[in-house]
Specification:
Blueprint (H helix, E strand, L loop, with lengths): L17 H28 L4 H20 L7 H12 L7 H15 L7 E4 L9 E2 L2 E5 H21 L1 H14 L13
Parallel strand pairs: 1-3
Antiparallel strand pairs: 2-3
Helix pairs in contact: 1-2, 1-5, 1-6, 2-3, 2-4, 2-5, 2-6, 3-4, 5-6
Length: 188
């Protein structure tokens, strides 16, 4: 890829100059993330399928924390996940350990809220982060707003911090990113 060529999602390499990686991030990765991640979540969190939106959001945090870490998160998932929340989510709003245990491990992997720490609702912004019966209420739309803020802060940091961009590119070239590909089926 040269600076004159239009970058595509797949034509990135860790060995490319920083300027080319930055163009790729701004013109390919960032808009693709919005389209493939945020647009579906936005459709889910205000609907009767808000639970799926919560699952998706917990996965997105996992996904972003992997890019933030750069190298493999094998046996390092918890510090990556909780570290990302601590660094990028609004301060003093969320318990990163609780989100890791209850949403990532509980909701995503066991389809339950472990330790009943949270109650999940949608379309009730007035209840967000209030306590009831020992549970913290998370409203899907408000949690999504905070996830978007965290993502924007992280992406803005990537644009000004070479190390973060390099980590993202390293992780991307190793593990990829969800994409819709062309499928050709010969029915003969």
């Amino acid at each position: 890829m040269t600076l004159g060529l239009i970058p595509t999602l797949s034509n990135i390499s860790p060995s490319m100059p920083h300027a080319q990686k930055l163009i790729w991030f701004k013109n390919c990765f960032r808009p693709h993330f919005k389209e493939m991640i945020f647009e579906p979540i936005n459709r889910l969190v205000y609907s009767q399928d808000a639970l799926i939106g919560f699952i998706f959001m917990a996965c997105v945090i996992d996904y972003l924390s992997g890019f933030w870490r750069g190298k493999s998160t094998k046996k390092e998932v918890k510090p990556s996940y909780t570290g990302f929340i601590k660094r990028y989510f609004p301060k003093d709003k969320y318990d990163e350990e609780g989100l890791y245990d209850s949403l990532r491990n509980g909701l995503v992997h066991m389809f339950t809220i472990k330790n009943k720490k949270y109650a999940l609702v949608h379309n009730h912004s007035e209840l967000h982060l209030k306590k009831k019966s020992g549970q913290l209420i998370l409203n899907a739309g408000d949690f999504f707003k905070d996830l978007k803020i965290a993502t924007e802060q992280y992406f803005n940091d990537i644009e000004i911090t070479t190390e973060l961009l390099d980590k993202l590119v390293e992780r991307f070239t190793r593990d990829g990113f969800l994409d819709v590909g062309q499928l050709s089926i010969d029915l003969d």
